Structure formats: structure tokens, C-alpha cells
Amino acid sequence: MSQHARRQLTVVLAGAASLAIAMGVGRFAFTPILPMMLHDGVLDLHVAGNLATANYIGYLVGALASMLVPKKWDHTTVIRLALATTVILTALMALPVPSMWISLRFLAGVVSAVGFVFTSGWCLAELSGTSGSIGSAIYTGPGAGIALSGVAASFMSAAGLTGQLGWVTFAAMSAIMSALIWGVFGRRTKSVEAFYVGTARAASGKVPGAEMPLFAMAYGLAGFGYIITATYLPVIAKNAIPGSSLLTVFWPLFGISAVVGSLLAAKVKKNADARLYLIGSYLVQAAGVALSVVWQDALGLAVSSILVGIPFTAISFFAMNEVRRIRSTHHARHMGLLTAMFAIGQIMGPPAVGVILRNEANVDVGFALALGIASLTLVVGAAIFVAMIVMFPGKRRPAGTAKHVSG
């Protein structure tokens, strides 16, 4: 293997691990730990919804903060800070001080967004100019982190361990992973060739004013569309098939499916229109969300987990590259804009579930209504991308014409 190939592999593995920590732990460790905390009696679904909402609000704040970070700041320093802070905040969740949990989950959301934006930007820049869509491989990280945390929580739950120990375990896992990749983020980012999947802007470099707002709106709808499943999947499964030995399988299956989706995205040709793949991803995820309403047994929930999981990180990959295509300069700022819109969509999820559950005597009916709305939201997002293809057909970028930008 050549030195260049080894460097690419190192960047992919480090990027995936960084996103596994930022997303799989910083954002989603709460999902598999939630049933354990409910069993421990330290919270109820109402408090759980508040904690989830705090995390998503933090994610929004972190995304907005990413937009304000000066361009001259080195991405690798920000990534290292995000890794270390995630470990600390995860460990602090083990403290039996419920009054702190809202603040801790909020801060974890802030750091998660910052880690996602800067890891994405740095890695995609480092991997630019490569054959194929190798950059998508870094997005196996969130799925791998979700799967790993889900499997670990399954074993801990089966052993009768507490949610408190779950937080300690996830903090330790994150610390070990951070130590292993720390050195990769030790060198400053250099100017590299931009990497694109999708249509290119016209030769003038000007972008129609409505394109970015429409894109951001569609991406924000994806945040709401998946978040109810991603937050409450173990609880939904427990209500649908109580007492089943498969209750702990669905969340890891979601994560594994996300890994598969990222690997499939790597097969996409660079001259493909990313918006077509976003449309397909939204519709697949919409079908998965809807399926959990109409097919409520173990097999139905398994298929639903797969269909929601496969597009999960692939959507992020296509969207982040589309940002680099639309806004090639200071792309971290515009990645932050999209991440902020995504966060707004997420923030609306748990409160919407809370309102519906308060007005529905039957919990199952309430979840079914919430999931139906989420599925419809994803269909609307896909329709926006269809409209964008009609409004902004774009031109293909000829080979070898990629511009050089600062990563």
C-alpha cells in the first residue's frame, strides 16, 4: 500500500471514529440507555423527552457556533477539543444529580454539532481528489457508534446493570477511541482540491439565491422525519412486543444499517446528481418510519429499523458534499447552516411526541400518529429536492476542473 493510500485510510478511520464519538455517543448514547434509566426509576418519559430536547437544542447552538468560528482557526484543534469534551460530559451523566442532566445533555449537543461539522469538513477536504466517493466512509462512524453503544447497552441491560454504569462505560469507550485517533488530528489543514458529488455551479460561480434556502429547508425536514424513531425506538419496540427477547436488537440494527448505507454511498459516481440520491434516501426513510406503524411485530420493527437506518448517514454525506458544491469557500460555515436547520427539525420531535401523548389516552396510538407525521415530513422534503432539480438543473463539472479551496 502506498503512503498516499495509507494516509487516506488513516483519515477515514480517524474521521469515522471521531463521528462515532460525537454522534454515536454525544448524541445517541441516551437512546439505548433510556430503557435502563426508566427501569432504574430515575426518570419517566416526560423527563426523557426534556433531556432529548435539551440535547437537540444544544446541537442547534453548536451548529450556529460552527458558523461563527473564524476561518483561520485550525479544524484539527476544534476536533480534539470536541473529543475531549464529549468524554467528560458523558462521564458526568453518571453522577446521581438529576438537576445537572439537562445542562449536560445540552452541552453534549453543542459539542456534538461542532465535532460533526469540523470533522466532516476536515476529512472531506483531506480526502478530496480521490477516486470514487471515499469520503462517505467517514459517515460509517455514527452508525458504528450507535451499533456499538446499542450492543453494549443490551449486554448491560441483560446483566441487570444500571444506567449509571452505562454512562461510565460509554465515557471509557470514547476516551479509548479518542486516544487512538488523537495523533491523526495533529497537523494543520492544508489547501486541497475540493471534492464534490453532484452537479456543479455554472462557470460564473454564481448560485441562484433561492437554492441554498430551499436546500436548508429540505435538510431540516429530514431532522424531524427521523428523530422520533431515533429517540424512542427502544421504547416503541417495548410497547409493541413487550417481553420479547429481541427488544434490544432494533437499535443496534439501526446503527449497522447506517454503516451499510454509508458504504453504499461510496459507490456513487462523482458526476452523479446528489439530489437524486437525497430524494431516494428520504423516500426510503419515510417508508421505514411508516412501516413501524402498520407492521408492529419483531420482523416489521426490524425491517423498519433497516429502512430508517440505511439512509441515515448517507443523507448527511450527500448533503455536506452538496454544500461544498454550492458554497466552495468557507464551507464549514454553510455546513453549520445546514446542521442548524437539521437541529431545528430534531428539536421539534420530542415536544411533538409529548403534546400528542398528552392528548391521546393510548400511548401506542400517540406514537403511531407522531410517526405518521414524521413519515409525511420526509416525503415533503423529497418533493422539495424534486422542485430544486427542475428549478436549478445545473451543469456537470468537466473532469479536472475542480477548484482549490481551503479545508
TrEMBL record:
InterPro entries: MFS_4, MFS_dom, MFS_trans_sf. SUPFAM superfamilies: MFS general substrate transporter (SSF103473). Gene3D superfamilies: MFS general substrate transporter like domains (1.20.1250.20). Coiled coil: none annotated. The keyword Membrane applies. Residues 211-407 form the Major facilitator superfamily (MFS) profile domain. The keyword Phosphoprotein does not apply. Keywords: Membrane, Transmembrane, Transmembrane helix. The chain crosses the membrane at residues 48-69, 81-100, 106-125, 137-159, 165-185, 214-233, 245-264, 276-295, 301-323, 335-357, 369-392. This is YbfB/YjiJ family MFS transporter.
